[in-house]
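Q: A reviewer asked whether we had any structural model of the full assembly, not just the individual parts. We don't, so I'm hoping you can provide one. Inputs are below.
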Amino acid sequence: MQTPIPQLTRDSTINLVLDTLAKKKQALVFVNSKRSAEKQAEDLSKKTKLESHELKVLAEQLQSVLDKPTHQCERLALCVKQGVAFHHAGLASKQKEIIEEQFRKGTIKVICCTPTLAYGLDLPAFRSIIRDVKRYGHRGMDFIPVLDYLQMAGRAGRPKFDAWGEAILLADTEPEADDLLERYIQGEPEEIFSKLAVEPVLRTYILSLIAARFVRTRSEIMEFFGRTFWAHQFEDVDKLAAIIDKMLRLLQEWEFVQKAEGEFAPASEVSDPPYRATFLGQRVAELYLDPLTAHQLRKAMTRGAEEKVTGIFPWLHILSRTLEMRPLSGVRQKEYELVSQKLALAESTLLEREPSSFDPEYDSYLEAVKLAMILEEWCEERDEEFILETYNIRPGELRTKLSRLDWLLYACHELAHILQFNDLLKEIRKARIRAKYGVKEELLSLIRLEGIGRMRARILWRNSIKDLGDVKNVEQKRLADLLGAKLASSLKKQVGEDVQGDGKLDQYALPAEKAGKNNE
DNA sequence: GGACGGTGAAACTTCAGGTTGCCTC
DNA sequence: GAAGTTTCACCGTCC
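A: Here is a predicted structure for the entire assembly that you could use as a starting point for your response.
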């Protein structure tokens, strides 16, 4: 390094950032956990002395993106007032958006982040400071791959503004510095391995290839995969064939794929009969659902219909058990009691039996109970702060899970339709709306109105306006007192038109206008 | 003497990320 | 495995 960095504090990350600011430049600081990102941002914000009116306004904007700010929002606002932000998957997406935009504009000078910002996002800075090179993995702390380092280092230097950029790796000691130099700067990036070999991916691909009639026979399937990067790496053709055969067997067993045999198959194809997707398999492929998930859901629905399961929790649990919901957040020590209690209470209604506590699956089963609890809390109108405090699930993480839940519920609905579980259809639709808006069942009617979310629906309900009829009958002035004149007039218009239409609304249809309403 | 507050060592807890599907009368 | 947080013992100060 040409000029030494002034050692203004004992924290070398802070020193580097302060030096960057003195140069009128921006910095990204990469750390290995969400908690660290927040802490580092907070420590930095105490030193930057950047407060301005612009930042104050920005901080207020960031703090109020949710119905009710969580302490995460407040913490972010405090940092941003000093020109520093933290950025990780736990932020509300609106907050991430604003931070990225304001960093590009130069209002925010420093972002402390987890590797989120290294991938996909085009957010360069003069300095890319890589504080942590170790990350928690399967075997405790491990060095991050060279590829990850390169991604982070690659954020340094803004092509339009800077002639160069600086990527800085932090080491505490000389030997460590030597090690990092060798490992990352002189080191070769890891080889890239095909992800196709992962069973869920393979299952999904084979089914969609057959459903799209891109391939028909086993030999065509083999030929297709033989040309992939995966096969190129795999080399062992026999083993490859064995894996594909196993997948084909499963897809048949689950009735997503059929072998055309006997009279349907031309003589030439007797030894290599064509496969075709069943109607069900076709739909599973269209939904991009992992066939295993579709199979799990089918089993669960069969059971749910037989046992006349009621309530939303068993469904939330079975959906939390799918691969699509992974990774699950672990059950923390202090949550263990709470989750176990819930499991004991709900066990008899759950659609998948509790494994023995010695079973390796037990942990993930319990984690699914935890996720189902969180989703249920949301559907019971608990706010983000409660969920963050109780389960350590941040708003951004909650949103991700909710959006997957919505997709899975939709998929469930489609499967139930095809498999003629007609009694379930209405329940699934209700669950989908409840999850989407985070409301109890009693608000389903009000939530349909444009301009009405969970907060306003609850206000109406508390004031004895409990369904569309009530909205129609109540005086407009009263509505205006509760929700403002503009919305009151809109509501009156909505119920007026609707009620005139056919006299009764389909209570569980999703209002089209509200589809894009959530401020994600 | 006791309440309070500051300090630091020890014990304890937790740990990155994200794409698919519908639909707008 | 290590950072960050919580707990707790210890000590000094003030009333």
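A: Points you may want to mention in the reply: The longest helix of chain A spans residues 395-418. The longest strand of chain A covers residues 27-30.
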